[in-house]
Amino acid sequence: MSLPLIALAPLVLLAAAGPFVLHPGRRPGRLPRVAEAAALVALALGPAGLLQLWLSGPQVLSFGGLALLRLDAISVTLALLVAFVGWAVIRFACRHLDGEAREGRFHGLSLAAIASVLLLVQAASLPVLVLSFVATGLVLRQLLLFYPDRPQAQRAAAKFIRVWAAGDVALIAASVLLWLGPGTVDIAALTATPTLPGLAQLAVALLVLAAALKTAAFPLHGWLTEVMEAPTPVSALLHAGIINSGGVLLITLSGLVQHSAGAMAALVVIGGFTAIFGALVMLTQSAVKTALAWSTVAQMGFMLLQCGLGLWALALLHIVAHSLYKAHAFLASGGAVRAVNAVRKPGPVAAPGLGAVARSFALALVLYLAVAAGFSALVGEKSPQALALGTMLIFGVSYLIAQGLADTAPRALTRRTVAASLGAALAYFTFQVLAQAIWGPFLPAAPIAGPLEWALIVLAVLSFGLVAFAQALIPLWAHHPSTAGLRVHLANGLYLNALLDRLIGGYRTGPKS
User: Which of 24, 131, 241, 442 is most buried, taking the most CB atoms under 10 A from its CB?
Assistant: First the structure.
């Protein structure tokens, strides 16, 4: 079996990281450009791997009987994504961190982090997966301590490494149980397992726990919102790449996870609650980067929900879209603030009443059902899970329509908001069809909805609908005294992060390196 070309990308990055050990300080000569060139080479190996996959089909690189790396549609997609985001972050950091006291150290660690994640998304066996997760956590901790004298950075790094290490322990335990149960650590063999023996059922539960910890799911989400003490490129690398690793774990082992109805139900509950909680807290944040961090919490919860519904191709699409958006959002956050401050502030916003909000939700659902019927006639029936997910997404668009249907809203705004809702429905089904066509053949189909699945679908749709309805009515009760108090509590994340600080002693400053 020939060597998958994209498997060389981690080696290229690690080779470029080596010289930074000797030059960890300020302005290490031309080495930052070497780092950028190495990231660009890693990115160029992505299309080469894609061509190799098209010409030769899926491949596995083995050594001594142990599968090391795999080349398939899923791994190539994720490797391309990681390499692109990594190159963009390195390129940005060459200018952003120019002259910093630990500039060389940052570039070396960033290259090592990207290499670790590239290894993670291409892992073909559980030992390689575990090794890449452990390496990623150790490197990211050092990046979070880029300013080691800041107590807030020490606290965030301390919380991160504890939560991440707990996920590593869960993953190691799951790997041992799978080795003792099905008797293999090969990912391809595990995903092809037709049934789950007793030990494997417990292993899948541990995999779900590991994924929840890696994605900063509720209630251990606090560390993700405190990493702003690190430089902006670290935030971009974390929120646009590393935080997706829990979803990558679930998608990689989707054939195994989907055998457990309990694991799927747990993902729906944990993911749905995290998504709603993160979205509510995000609305109360005044700082741009903090709001983006809470947005990541919500998005990771929604991704776990997609996995729990068995919509694996859409979960992968979510990872790709969120990574690209969040990398741009963090790297461009400074310019965005300046641009907004330079724009003339608009006048009063049309506040929709209860009737306008109700009409907006009804209109959005009608448009969505019409589009769903049209797509079903063209490309076939959609699963209940996919339709439910689209309903949750359209609830968010209903807020826009509510502004357009307010009594004082101009007709132009009404037309724009209705067009936006129609566009969102069309985009959802279009991307769903594309994702299914690209990755669907390599991932399990959504399970047939039984009583448990229907109960979870109804619960998720009603929960998202009620929250979206309440958000649309915010202008009506935003100035009520009780609402002001609730806003303060939400802005502080209901103080769950403070409880985590107390549990781990996070208020005490930790080591400086």
Answer: 241
**Neighbour count for residue 195 (Cβ, 10 Å):** 8
| pTM (two decimals) | 0.90
Structure tokens at 119: 């290894």
Paired residues of 125 in beta bridges = 186
**Could you tell me the two tokens for 457?**
């679908």
Helix residue ranges, H only, 343-383: 354-379
288 exposed, middle or buried (CB, 10 Å; 0-12, 13-18, 19+)?
Answer: middle
Q: What is the DSSP annotation of 244-295?
A: GHHHHHHHHTHHHHTT-HHHHHHHHHHHHHHHHHHHHHHTT--SHHHHHHHH
Kindly state the DSSP code that residue 100 receives in the 8-state scheme. -
Is residue 387 within 8 A of residue 369, CB to CB? The reply is: no
Q: 30: which DSSP letter? A: T
Q: CB-based contacts of 275: which residues, under 8 Å, 6+ apart?
A: 298, 299, 301, 302, 305, 464
Picking from 234, 361, 364, 250, the residue whose alpha carbon sits closest to that of residue 300 is 250
Helix 354-379 crosses helix 384-405 at what angle (to 10 degrees)? Answer: 140
Q: What is the DSSP string of 136-161?
A: HHHHHHHHHTSSTT-HHHHHHHHHHH
User: What is the β-pairing status of strands 66-71 and 59-63?
Assistant: antiparallel
Q: Which tokens sit at 353?
A: 């009443």
How far apart CA 19 and CA 37 sit, in angstroms, is 14
Mean pLDDT value across residues 129-157: 91
H or E stretch covering 242? none
Of 16, 90, 89, 12, whose CA–CA distance to 44 is shortest? 12
pLDDT digits (tens, 9 = 90+) for 398-449: 766 776 666 666 667 667 777 777 777 788 888 888 998 899 899 998 888 8
Q: Is the pLDDT of residue 512 over 60?
A: no
Judge whether 490 and 467 are in contact, CB under 8 Å: no
116 touches 136 (CB < 8 A): yes
Greater confidence, 138 or 475? 138
Q: pLDDT at position 513, please?
A: 44
In terms of Cβ atoms closer than 10 Å to its own Cβ (0-12, 13-18, 19+), residue 165 is middle
